[in-house]
UniProtKB/TrEMBL annotation:
Identification of the protein by name: 5'-nucleotidase
Cited InterPro entries: HAD-like_sf, HAD_sf, Pyrimidine_nucleotidase_eu
EC number: 3.1.3.5
Family: Belongs to the pyrimidine 5'-nucleotidase family.
Source taxon at top rank: Eukaryota
One term under GO cellular component: cytoplasm
């Protein structure tokens, strides 16, 4: 039997381990080449599998852990909800999401991104004097909109006033159907990074997406179309313009949707709810505490996982962490939502 001094033994062990690693990697790469149609190999999937094997929980396996920009109030609760959602799979799942600064980016290069109302308000189709009027309206009502101390019964009439004042200016302007298209085409609108991945997984797995927005529905439709994210299983509930025969804006469809009534009470009919009544697991995405009511009235809801994006006003982190299951601070991507969705739909999703 060969004997080694301690140094020789250490070198021999390192060499053997490296050789083994190389052999395994070589086989793995060859297997991946010949079985590419079965499942693409990625270092991330290996990390996930290894992490699960060590009992790190679903969040651990997804590399979503509390810390840095991810804040989770109750990890045990989130794990429990995720276990049930994974067991329920794609057939039990539906997604409800806000649009402005949730599916769309909140900031880009440190600059706030416009919301759907902003795009119209700041466009060349609105006169300078009307833009100034709207800025004043915004300055007065916006602090009330984000107030967490203003009682709801006082906030609701203020929000109705807010939206109606802005909409009246839109209606009095020379805005047309074509102008709305042009506004979006000419704008530098952006969805969150990897939002296309999120939407495509929903499309591929026939998972319905309800977009609930107090913004401008026509702008949302145009944005989905511009970015190639139109999907048949997406339903947008928002403030849609009405036009006369000449294509000029003459009003808004009822009901008015503002931040305080984004719930089933404003769904145009019950068809959507009835179609989804077997889908008892809900992922809810929002960037406002008011977005949490979007799932109110979902029939037969069993589990809900709420994900809140907090990009500005980070001083509100505690409020957000108490309200949402997962809070993502200054994260302009859909990576966390994509990891969770991928886990629920399975490896072939
Ligand atoms: Mg929003």
């Amino acid at each position: 039997m060969m004997t080694f001094c301690p140094l020789q033994e250490a070198i021999h062990k390192m060499w053997t381990k490296q050789l083994c690693r190389n052999v395994v990697l070589c086989h793995l790469k060859r297997w991946t080449r010949t079985h590419r149609h079965v499942r693409p190999w990625s270092p991330l999937s290996t990390v996930r599998a290894a992490s699960s094997a060590h009992g790190a929980g679903i969040l651990g396996s997804l590399q979503v852990t509390h810390g840095d920009h991810v804040h989770i109030r109750d990890v045990g609760h989130v794990e429990q909800v995720l276990r049930n959602m994974v067991a329920g799979g794609r057939e039990k799942l539906q997604v409800i999401s806000d649009f402005d600064h949730t599916l769309s980016r909140s900031t880009y290069d440190g600059v706030r991104c416009p919301m759907t109302h902003d795009l119209v308000k700041d466009s060349r189709f609105i006169s300078e004097s009307d833009q100034k009027k709207m800025c004043k309206i915004w300055q007065y009502y916006y602090p009330k909109e984000i107030s967490t101390t203003l009682p709801l019964q006082e906030k609701i009439p203020l929000m109705v006033e807010f939206w109606n004042k802005i909409h009246d200016i839109f209606i009095a302007s020379d805005l047309t159907r074509q102008a709305v298209r042009t506004i979006v085409q000419e704008s530098d609108t952006r969805f969150r990074d990897a939002c296309d991945v999120f939407v495509n997984v929903l499309r591929k797995n026939d998972i319905p997406l309800l977009v609930f927005s107090a913004g401008v529905g026509d702008v949302i439709h145009e944005m989905f179309e511009k970015h190639g994210l139109t999907i048949p299983n997406c339903h947008v509930v928002s403030n849609f313009l009405t036009f006369n025969d000449a294509g000029k804006v003459v009003g808004f469809r009822d009901p008015l949707i503002h931040i305080c009534n984004k719930n089933r009470s404003v769904l145009p009919d019950h068809t959507y709810s009835l179609k989804q009544q077997e889908r008892t697991n809900v992922i809810l995405l929002g960037d406002s505490l008011n977005d949490l009511q979007m799932a109110d009235g979902v029939p037969n809801m069993d589990r809900i996982l709420t994900i809140g994006f907090l990009s500005r006003h980070v001083e509100r982190l505690q409020d957000f962490t108490e309200a949402f299951d997962i809070v993502l601070v200054q994260d302009e991507t859909m990576h966390v939502a994509n990891a969770i969705l991928g886990k629920i739909v399975g490896s072939d999703g």
